[in-house]
Every structure is written in C-alpha cells, then in structure tokens.
Amino acid sequence: MRLLLLGSIVLLPMLGCGDAPGRASEAPYSAALLAPGTPAPDITLRDLDGQAFPLSSLRGKTVLLSFWFRKCTTCQAEMPRLSQLTAELAQQRQDVEFLAVNFSDTPATIRAWWKDNDFKLRPVMQREGDVSAAFGVQAYPTNYVIGPDGKVVWAGVDYEPAMIRGALASTLPR
User: Fold this and answer.
1) What kind of fold does domain 2-169 have according to CATH?
2) Are 2 and 10 in contact (CB under 8 A)?
3) Inter-CA distances, 169 with 82, 139, 153, 165, Å
4) By CB count within 10 A, which of 14, 60, 80, 84 is most buried?
5) Is-contact 55 41, C-beta < 8 A?
6) Does position 11 have pLDDT exceeding 70, yes or no?
7) Long-range residue pairs from 47-51, CB within 8 A, at least 24 positions apart, any chain
8) How many CB atoms lie within 10 A of CB 87?
9) Distance of CA 84 to CAs 20, 37, 70, 81, 88, Å?
10) Residue 163: what are its φ and ψ, rounded to 5°?
11) What residues contact 63, with CB distance under 8 A and at least 6 apart?
C-alpha cells in the first residue's frame, strides 16, 4: 500500500502539468480547490534554508500562492510572468506577498533556476506535498490569492492573469 501511495504522489504533479497527455480541461482539477471565502489552511511552509513559518504569520497581507515544480513545462512558462507581476506590484503595494510553493524539487535546483532567471517571487518548500494536499492542488501550476483576513479570494489552475490581477485588486485597502 505504501508503494502505491508513493507512486500516486510522484505521478500527481504530472496530471496537471501542461505537457501531460490527455488533459482536456482544468475543470476536474479546479473542482478540488478551496472555494472563495474558505479559510486558508494554517499550513507550515519552509524557506530554501529549511526555516519553517506558518502561513498565518502572513495574516494582514494579501498572499499569492503559486504551486509549481521545475519539470512542468506549463510552470516554466508561467513563472517568468508571475515574476514580472510580482516586480510590477511590488512598486505599487507593500501588502502583497508572492510565494512560489514548490512540489518536490531540491533547494539547489530551485536556487539555480531563480538565479538564472532573476525571479522575484519568494520560493518556499513543502514536505511530501502536504501544502498541495491541504489546498486541494491536483494540477500544476495552480494559483491562490489569500486575503488579509486569511480567507481564499480566488483559486485557479494555470496562469490566468486577469483573474489573478482582479483578485489582488479586490484586496486593496479601502
């Protein structure tokens, strides 16, 4: 049973990656995501040095969580766009935190890719897919916008710039 479970965890990211065969629609993957208004799980994230911090430590900020892994070609195409959005919004807002939640790559792999591309998002790790599971992520890339109150504002599979921008704009302080 343990081998079967491990096999399904290893294959899980391939299901949603843009180069997966037979992927006709994101609808089945989107259905598993947390609905807007749902409190975000207070899950523990880790920076590339292994330092742990709870998602709740960012309460009061808007958080964009981008779930990805290095070998996913759709993730490879999305990351520069998210990095550009991060750089753009950093000039306008100090209340947004951009986190790139990696599925299974090593810190060395992530550091090298970040250095080669000068990405602006903050890369974070998870343990054995625990963050992905808590958020119902079954396809990569998946993005969430979490409001300052800790509730889901928006979630979607693949890069949807208009939806992401709209969700981020909806959290502007009034």
Assistant:
1) Glutaredoxin (3.40.30)
2) no
3) 15, 25, 11, 6
4) 14
5) yes
6) no
7) 47/122, 47/123, 47/124, 47/125, 48/107, 48/110, 48/111, 48/123, 48/124, 48/125, 49/107, 50/107, 50/125
8) 14
9) 26, 27, 18, 5, 6
10) -70, -45
11) 40, 55, 96, 97, 98, 99, 144, 145, 146
CB-side exposure of 28: number of CA atoms within 13 Å? 8
Alpha carbon 33 to chain centroid, angstroms? 12
- The answer to whether 64 and 142 have CB atoms below 8 angstroms apart is no
Q: How far apart are alpha carbons 60 and 97 in whole angstroms?
A: 10
**Residue whose structure tokens are 């509730």:** 151
pLDDT digits (tens, 9 = 90+) for 112-167: 999 999 999 999 999 889 999 999 999 999 999 999 999 999 999 988 999 999 99
What pLDDT digit, counting tens, does each position of 27-71 carry? 677 788 999 999 999 999 999 999 999 999 999 999 999 999 999
Identity at 172, one-letter amino acid code: L
pTM, full prediction: 0.85
Pairing of strands 142-146, 62-68: antiparallel
Encoding tokens for residue 96?
């947004």
